[in-house]
């Protein structure tokens, strides 16, 4: 898959072509200054012994050039400490955990549902049953020749999009 296409779908690619992260813009906030943007990146993912999945996402605020404002304000020595603290409080990175444990999806539609909903199955079971055809139906441009981990990364990027569409960020 082309580097530009990987980037378009939220994968961060190094100059050597290695995928080095997952980060996507998410819906803005009226609390932020004009020209800023919220971005969510995958910070960590782990599997428990029963294969339940936990992902830790981090939401950060960037300026129109993509510069991380928390890091920028933290390094700006020209401002009085009170101003720096106030600015840092507005752009503080937020960690957002997400787990499959105790979460259910509709086996037919893939929508998140309550445990007692019709066709509800544990979310981990839903993910274990996914095939490339399901991911293609979600709009991913897969041919079946992509490396396994690229497919996993694209799935994770889709989870960020899904959570954003559900206003969970």
Q: Work out the radius of gyration.
A: 18 Å
**Largest sheet at a glance?**
5 strands, antiparallel
The quaternary structure here is single chain
Q: Distance between the terminal alpha carbons, to the nearest Å?
A: 29 Å
Fraction of residues in helices?
25-40%
Mean pLDDT equals 92
Structural class category: alpha+beta
Number of strands: 8
The number of helical elements comes to 6
Please state the overall shape, judged from the principal axes of the Cα atoms: globular
Report on this structure.
The longest helix has 18 residues, at 148-165. 31% of the residues lie in helices and 27% in strands. The strands form two sheets. Strands 1-2-3-4-5 form a five-stranded antiparallel beta sheet. Strands 7-6-8 form a three-stranded antiparallel beta sheet. Strand 3 (37-47) and strand 4 (53-62) form a beta hairpin. The protein is built from six helices and eight strands, in the order αββββααββββααα. The mean pLDDT is 92. 12% of the residues are buried. The chain is α+β, with helices and mostly antiparallel strands and 169 residues long.
Layout of helices and strands, plus pairs?
Layout (H helix, E strand, L loop, with lengths): L2 H6 L2 E3 L5 E8 L10 E11 L5 E10 L6 H7 L5 H10 L3 E6 L4 E3 L5 E2 L6 E3 H6 L3 H6 L10 H18 L4
Antiparallel strand pairs: 1-2, 2-3, 3-4, 4-5, 6-7, 6-8
């Amino acid at each position: 898959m082309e580097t530009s296409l990987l980037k378009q779908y939220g994968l961060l690619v190094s100059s050597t072509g290695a995928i080095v992260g997952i980060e996507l813009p998410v819906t803005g906030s009226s609390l932020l200054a004009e020209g800023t943007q919220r971005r969510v990146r995958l910070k960590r993912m782990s599997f428990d012994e029963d294969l339940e999945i936990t992902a830790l996402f981090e939401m950060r605020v960037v300026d129109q050039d993509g510069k991380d404002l928390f890091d920028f304000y933290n390094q700006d020595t020209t401002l009085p400490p009170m101003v720096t603290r106030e600015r840092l409080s507005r752009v503080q990175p937020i960690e957002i955990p997400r787990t499959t444990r105790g979460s259910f999806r509709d086996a037919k539609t893939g929508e998140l549902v309550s445990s007692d909903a019709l066709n509800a199955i544990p979310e981990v079971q839903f993910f274990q049953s996914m095939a490339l055809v399901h991911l293609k139906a979600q709009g991913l441009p897969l041919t079946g020749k992509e490396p396994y981990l690229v497919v996993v990364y694209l799935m994770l990027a889709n989870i960020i999009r899904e959570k954003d569409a559900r206003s969970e960020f």
